[in-house]
Amino acid sequence: MKNEPNFIIRLQEPTTKETAFKELLQLYKERLYWHVRKIVVSHDDADDVLQNTFIKVYKNIDKFKGDSKLYSWLYRIATNESITFLNKKARRLQITNEEHQNNAINNLQADVYFEGDEIQLKLQKAIATLPQKQQLVFNMKYFDNITYKDMSEILETSEGALKASYHIAVKKIETFLTDH
Known about the structure:
- Keywords: DNA-binding, Sigma factor, Transcription, Transcription regulation.
- This protein is an all-alpha fold.
- Helices cover 77% and strands 0% of the residues.
- It starts with a helix and ends with a helix.
């Protein structure tokens, strides 16, 4: 983002916070929605998580030090909120995260907001078989084209570990697609 330091100052300044936050919403709402949606799968759940994400951002913007890019910080919050949401929902339903993920994928065909074809559905099923970290890395690289450098800021993991996770995820997805 151009002029990010000035934008952050506007977000943190009480007299300009509201206007700057509306700009922030316009800039990132759709990108973060799709990032969250890939993690939680359901449209309604994604809306809830996105709302929680922006509430957390609004409440904590004053604590943002600028050690990372603003969008990396936003993605980190959205990712953490998504994982927390999934864990709580699985606990509430008394099932594992994997079972919850499989249920969500199985319900995807009935989701009026899902516009994918049979191949997209098959890919989503393949992604759902991956461990959570590999899902995150695959989605961020494959769908969002996020660099390993930016991903390492968001997920607070080394670039080497992320590259390895992505490579393993791709192999597992290829195997799943070949076998199914």
